[in-house]
Amino acid sequence: MTPTLVRTIAELRRLVAAARVRGASIGLVPTMGALHRGHAALMRRAREETGLVVVSIFVNPTQFGPHEDLARYPRMLEQDCELCGRERVDVVFAPPVEEMYPAGFRTFVEVEGLQNVLCGASRPGHFRGVCTVVLKLFNQVQPERAYFGQKDAQQARILQQMVRDLDVPVEMCICPTVREPDGLALSSRNQYLDAGQRQHALSLYQTLQHAQHQIAGGERSAAVIRQRMEERLVATPGAVVDYAAVVDADSLQPLASLRGRVLLALAVKFGATRLIDNALVDVPE
Ligand code: AMP
Known about the structure:
Blueprint: E1 4-6, H1 9-21, E2 26-31, H2 37-49, E3 52-57, H3 77-86, E4 91-93, H4 97-100, H5 119-122, H6 126-141, E5 145-149, H7 153-165, E6 171-175, H8 195-200, H9 202-216, H10 222-234, E7 239-248, E8 260-270, E9 273-283
Parallel strand pairs: 1-4, 2-3, 2-5, 3-4, 5-6
Antiparallel strand pairs: 7-8, 8-9
């Protein structure tokens, strides 16, 4: 089945309204395309849980910094539509930039406190762009449910806060990170890696595994865990560490001792390619 490819908000609204008349609930999966099995897992869950599945494919310029990979970000709409078809997606919404940001656009959404730490510290304005585009998509589609990946843990946390604070009537569904057989988290940016970098990129997953073993073994000092994670990453050939963090999963603030829901989060650059990964750990009080 081929999904209906839609380029305009007006056409999108027509299809969504028609589905509502039929009594269908709406599921939205926002993406930037270059789709992989991680995205497919979100679509599959949306397919199980909602009557009309909308996948947006939009490389959102407002979430890229001036020196980031906006221009070279992979764009492969035809292949993406095929993957969406295999997952029985109903609508692919792929608007041109002018449709989302017409001349004179001035309004942005910010989530204070959560947006300037971790990835936000090295990507100023990134989450402002993410929140703005996702709220626009929510208003355009008005889905009952929206599907996001735990792979982007900070993004998921910030969007949940935005939905709560602005009373957006959508249920946020956060899905587990899908990985390669060896553990590397799937990412559209993995295709930038050369063979050597691909091998060394496994270090992110291994570092998280190691930290989780230490915690399971009783280690409760966040400083010790953080330092070991950083040491492992620094020792990885070609890796330039952006951060290795041990934070409270709710506040995203650094912890002294581990307790409650803990987020272990990593960001590492291999050449020009920035990779992230994370693990959520429940530490008994
Ligand atoms: P992106 O196209 O990278 O902006 O991602 C679109 C959505 O897919 C986001 O909610 C991501 O968190 C999610 N996603 C990306 N990679 C994965 C993965 N490996 N596993 C699960 N979800 C993912």
